[in-house]
Design brief:
homotrimer, 350 residues, alpha+beta, Thiol Ester Dehydrase, Chain A, 12 strands
């Protein structure tokens, strides 16, 4: 029976450990089509080879979040099969575009450990990276997860909490997007006249659209990424969980929010970095997701006259409109219905 | 908040206006696979590159209705986000085959306007066309939709009702299908011995098969086309609509009916034109769709010894068999359960 | 009405009859992506072109069971539209790898007939084969199905029961897998250190993971294969069936079990043959599937130092864990919940 893995427990991790994950994955045009069918994304660069070629790409790059989900999924079997919760993300950078035909593999270094006072769980901090078939890093990110202990009597490891940047500095952005012939970027075809310069810090946008989650959709998405966390697929076992039903993969909500954000941010075609992200509440089939965004910061990129970046905070909520911009109420947590709080950088044409 | 569009209202349209739509879309083999998974189409020309090559195509063309849905979806954001109902289609011609790798873009001219007597809604007549990356028109069609007014007090525009042909004349058909080596068309492999000459005017065919609609299926289909009409995706908002639930995109029913029609029309591989179409009743997840067809007319195509066309009327119904050919009862409307009445031309080998 | 087929009945079959099936099907990268989204398969050879190339493939071959389902589906319209039950499989050999771009066609010979004593149904034994566009046999298998008689008064045909091998002899295996540079097979990337030599006869593996079936998923899978058996799609007609609801295509369960088996058999990348298989009980949407496997036999392949084969028996069950290895209780049938009993050969690196 030991040939079938049950995943690592808290006491199986050590700071400095590096794990090379199974299984490499070639990204196909079929993956891209499924991603469109699952989220309905419409960013021009990713939707049309002709649009992408006009501005200097050889063809449409693969959606950044599809790359994220594929790399993330590779880490699940080694890191988070026995996770209680995915607590947060940070220092996530998209460092090279990915195209159909590229093969992605992933590895992870354990960078921190902190046992919880109950001795039943602990927090594992990891830095993961995805590389293509040429060994080029396409994505790296840190995440921290609460993982069960197999045996509470095992002594706690030395606490190591990594020193994480509060966000990705603008100087580190731009690698994921080649220098573009931005004069050929057609904003009418892209769906909005609003370029980088048209957004102001503090501006809030209710993305207005909404999407209701179905079991078949989140399961197909999560399997497409080859994410194997059982909580998303096993209704029988979940019946006796605290939720009583299948849990939607948190990344599914991030992709829904990003697709909804097209309405208001149609030219924000490239996700350059994720500064911080947290899943405020779990989601289930039947939930209807809405989203709004606030512009936190604007930055130019050194030597780049083609694109510049906006730092956005996108909040997703369930079963309520985002007309009144639900969010964090200071120390009192979040407004009812908020499910996602994501702080990230997007690139737009100047 | 104005950056996120809510769509045009009746008073935002003017006859003669031309709208260039976002977002261009490259058609991939993944789109074709999803279309098969969603409808189960089996026409030999579209199913097999080898079959298509044997009769002179470079490879399988993309299913005509997939092209229709992709072009149609591009128009939704500018035309019908605030539509109450999609009233009808006409003058729809498939003018050039589309292949995997082609990029489709769309534009629309407003050709008619008529405010309703309630001053709350009006009918907008539009002619839309889809072009490929070489600027070649692949599809054009007229549709008319009832659209809400933002402000009932705005005066009505001058009524302009376009003069539409009752159907597409046979002389205009055939562009969408290259001249074929029809001697190499293998009817056994295609699934039926019945060629064009085997169908008689007045002949009725019950397609016998049936398919039950799931929420995940119609949502994935509609998002695949990048159709953004919120009524298909937002269960929460739809709760307070007159239907109480998500509405299935009408084109989804057309594609189901077309796939069902394979059983009885296996050699009708090319949809050459749609003369007229109306969605008689709305459809919802859980509905089981059946269909039957009648041959209305037969026509040869000038200079074409390879193919000829049948004018068909296909009726789709829900939650009942089509054994008794439900349809229109003169002036009294339709028999119970009828959801679609489609009048179109298909090409078959002679 | 005769143009729309209703399928053959028992009295329409004769031993020796050969049927060339409609419709050929080109396999695309989109089909492969959908197959991943539907089952979540993770075998390295099929998941990564780079992994496949490292060991000598030109690129990833298509999953063997996807090939099986596509070939099987072609036979349904001619063989089993009026089947009461799919009774069993045997002598199934995967004889050549299939790659994206290949076109599959199928034909079937009737090799046996036995009318049941009730004179209302009979058993039809068939040998089907799938060929690629070069005429190379990629797959062959025998199956036997119970088919309805149209007219019970038609006299019974002469009983012919084919002499079937109890399993596929190891000498017949290996054609479906080219000779590989097995030194380049990276077991870490593949997800398990366990090679052929690490499995012992009698060893049992609980695959631990589980997946809950959704209507949209099994329908999309079955339509992807172009399997047209109405019982899978028509909820309305199924309401009055003995089950009261749509029946899941048996092959869907085989693919779920195979994907679950990755956890414990990550290096068993090629399905070389199916010796015997039976669907012990029907499955429906909502069922949660689990699986376990036993090693029945080990064999080397003549002249092959790269791979060797294990004969496995995989049991799938529903709505129960496989921790206690549910199976056959001698003559008393199966333990509660067992739905599939599959005896097959897989190839692993030595």
């Amino acid at each position: 029976m030991e040939k079938a893995g049950r995943g690592r427990y808290f006491e199986d991790f050590a700071v400095g450990q590096v794990l090379r994950h199974a299984v490499p994955r070639t990204v196909s045009g079929g993956d891209v089509a499924l991603y469109t069918a699952l989220y309905g994304g419409r960013f021009g660069v990713q939707s049309s080879d002709a649009f992408a070629r006009a501005i200097g790409y050889e063809r449409s790059p693969v959606d950044d979040l599809l790359v994220f989900h594929i790399v993330f999924a590779r880490t699940v079997g080694d890191i988070s099969l026995n996770a209680v919760a995915n607590l947060g993300y940070g220092e996530c950078r998209f460092r090279a575009p990915v195209f159909v035909g590229d093969t992605l593999a992933a590895s992870t270094e354990i960078i921190g450990l902190k046992e919880n006072s109950n001795a039943r769980t602990g927090i594992v901090y990891v830095r993961s990276s995805g590389v293509n078939q040429r060994g080029q890093v396409v994505l790296e990110f840190v995440r921290w997860v609460m993982v069960q202990k197999r045996d509470p009597s095992v002594p706690a490891p030395k606490t190591v909490i990594p020193d994480l940047a509060p966000g990705v500095a603008p100087e580190l952005l731009g690698e994921g997007c080649p220098v573009l012939d931005i004069a050929n970027y057609d904003t009418t075809l892209a769906g909005s006249p609003d370029r980088w310069g048209d957004y102001g810090v503090g501006e809030r946008i209710d993305h207005f659209d909404a999407t209701t989650i179905e079991e078949a959709e989140h399961q197909m998405a999560t399997r497409l990424y080859q994410n194997t966390a059982r909580v998303h697929f096993d209704a029988l076992a979940q019946k006796s969980s605290r939720f009583g039903r299948r849990l939607v993969y948190g990344g599914h909500i991030i992709s829904i929010a990003r697709a909804l954000s097209f309405n208001g941010l149609a030219n924000a075609f490239h996700l350059a970095a994720i500064n911080a992200g947290s899943h405020v509440a779990p989601c289930f089939a039947g939930d209807t997701i809405t989203a709004w965004s606030e512009v936190l910061e604007r930055a130019e990129l050194a030597g780049r006259g083609d694109i510049a970046v906006l730092r956005l905070r996108t909040i997703a909520a369930k079963d309520r409109s985002c007309e009144k911009f639900p969010g964090r109420r200071g120390d009192k947590g979040y407004d009812d219905g908020v499910v996602l709080d994501l702080d990230y950088w997007v690139a737009l044409p100047r």
